[in-house]
Write a structure and sequence with these properties.
Blueprint: H1 2-13, H2 20-36, H3 41-56, H4 66-81, E1 97-102, H5 109-124, E2 128-133, H6 140-151, E3 155-156, H7 164-178, E4 182-187, H8 195-208, E5 212-218, H9 223-236, E6 240-244, H10 253-262, E7 266-270, E8 278-280, H11 283-290, H12 296-306, H13 309-321, H14 326-338, H15 342-348, H16 365-376, H17 380-384, H18 391-401, H19 405-426
Parallel strand pairs: 1-4, 1-5, 2-3, 2-4, 5-6, 6-7
Antiparallel strand pairs: 7-8
Helix pairs in contact: 1-2, 1-4, 2-3, 3-4, 4-11, 5-6, 7-8, 9-10, 14-16, 16-18, 18-19
This protein binds guanosine-5'-diphosphate (GDP) and magnesium ion.
The site of guanosine-5'-diphosphate (GDP) has 18 residues, from helix 5.
Enzyme class: hydrolase
Binding site for GTP: 103-110, 186-190, 244-247
Domain AAA+ ATPase: 95-403
Length: 439
């Protein structure tokens, strides 16, 4: 898919001017790319029309090649369709804020509620209460209780003999007594949208008057996800969507369709089974993902803006000749720092975004300052010839830089890994990238 798109764009790249035929050809590829990413047919049709209009009458930006312009238009429009900005959760003027989770069986409601409760706890110091409103699925209550225990959040349940509406009613009373600031209601799902389920959910909605009704949708179900979203939204008028299981190899085309078909914002995405795997949804990131480019576009943009071209060529030369030394290491760090937070950059490399090893990666800018301090404590000779760094030199450098000797050792190890990795990257292989993270 991406390959096809890139071929079409590559062809354009070699041309000075774009003709209407060129645009047509690229648009055909983009249409296919979107369909393959599971975007709904009607949505693709409308989308392609908009882009074609913009592309033919293109505002010619001088700094961009025709190919880049088209990619940019596509990217802009995709982002626009998905709502441009991240949308946050509603908050009740008076506690508790009530969030009701709905969706088909297996979509990820119960898991997502746990993730959300944890997020609220961490980010807002919230004291949420979970209500176990799914009395049908075997062990659903236990599942929620276990999740509650793991994240240390109380769970209100009354077993399986009492109606969900009554459970919610009593749960809300308890939340008010205990002054919980958030109430998260878990509900039952079915394999299909059906009337009985919808009636029950409507009753809960009427009683609880939730501030948010979040629809959980499994991104892996592709086209079907759109139908499901439509069904739930018509019945319940949901306030937002959570797209789960985006850690799989789905392109996330469902995100585009759901937003376009329901008009409701996607608020969060689930990217794994762990309680920490819930992220705010950013339309611009998703649009690049749908196009299958990781965040490659942004990376290219940033690189072009910030990376001194001459330096880059020099660096490549050094990689090839394997003469990369500590002076280059520092240069490299400085360049990378200009591009933004390290963890963002690494995630933009195709194939890296979903690499589990990088899931919780955080690179502290202070760490880079420390690395610099260490290198600046080396003599010129040592910087050029890292093999000189024997234990006694390492101790001297540690003392000079005010860092523990373990830090010096770790940095030398990282340097060696980076050097090795660069050798690989210059041969077009990204797989050594993890080595750079020192784990
Ligand atoms: P429910 O029936 O809607 O309550 O769905 P559950 O919360 O029980 O989730 C069903 C399954 O999907 C469980 O095995 C979850 O661990 C899994 N799951 C939920 N969200 C995600 C996600 O974002 N990524 C992955 N890989 N699995 C998920
Ligand atoms: Mg459940």
């Amino acid at each position: 898919l991406t390959e096809r798109l890139q071929n079409a764009i590559g062809k354009l790249r070699r041309k000075g001017k774009v003709s209407e035929t060129d645009v047509k050809e690229v648009m055909r590829e983009i249409r296919l790319a979107l369909l393959e990413a599971d975007v709904n047919f009607q949505v693709v049709k409308d989308f392609v029309k908009t882009v074609r209009q913009r592309a033919v009458g293109a505002e010619v930006l001088e700094s961009l090649t025709p190919a880049q312009q088209i990619v940019k238009i596509v990217n802009d429009e995709l982002t626009k369709v998905m709502g441009e900005e991240a949308v946050t959760l509603e908050k009740a003027p008076k506690i508790p804020t009530i969030i009701m989770m709905v969706g088909l069986q297996g979509a990820g409601k119960t898991t997502t509620l746990g993730k959300l409760a944890l997020k609220l706890k961490k980010e807002q110091n919230a004291r949420p209460l979970l209500i176990a409103g799914d009395i049908y699925r075997p062990a659903a209550i236990d599942q929620l209780k276990i999740i509650g225990q793991n994240i240390d959040v109380p769970v209100f349940s009354l077993g399986t003999d009492i109606s969900p509406v009554e459970i919610v009613r009593q749960g809300l009373i308890q939340a008010k007594e205990k002054k919980n600031d958030y109430v998260l209601i878990d509900t039952a799902g079915r394999l299909q949208v059906d009337e009985k389920l919808m009636n029950e959910l409507s009753e809960i909605k009427q009683l609880a008057e939730p501030n948010e009704i979040l629809l959980t949708v499994d991104a892996m179900t592709g086209q079907n996800a759109v139908e499901v979203a439509k069904g739930f939204n018509e019945q319940l008028n949901v306030t937002g969507v959570v797209l789960t299981k985006l850690d799989g190899d789905t392109r996330g085309g469902a995100a585009l369709s759901i937003r376009a078909v329901t008009g409701k914002p996607i608020k969060f995405i689930g990217q794994g089974e762990k309680m920490t795997d819930l992220d705010v949804f950013y339309p611009d990131r998703m649009s690049s993902r749908i196009l299958g480019m990781g965040d490659m576009l942004t990376l290219i943009e940033k690189a072009q803006q910030d990376f001194d071209q001459k330096k880059a060529t020099e660096m490549q030369e050094k990689m090839r000749e394997n003469t990369f030394d500590f002076n280059d290491f520092i240069d490299q760090m400085a360049q990378v720092q200009k591009m933004g937070p390290m963890e963002d950059i690494i995630k933009m490399i195709p194939g890296m975004a979903n690499n589990p090893a990088l899931k919780n990666l955080k690179v502290d800018p202070k760490d880079i300052e420390h690395l610099k301090a260490i290198v600046f404590s080396m003599t010129e000779k040592e910087r050029e010839d890292p093999d000189l760094l024997n234990p006694s030199r390492r101790r001297r450098i540690a003392a000079g830089s005010g860092r523990p000797v373990q830090d010096v050792n770790r940095m030398i190890k990282q340097f060696n890994q980076m050097k090795k990795m660069m050798g690989k990257v210059s041969k077009g292989n990204f797989s050594g990238m993890e080595g750079m993270l020192g784990n």
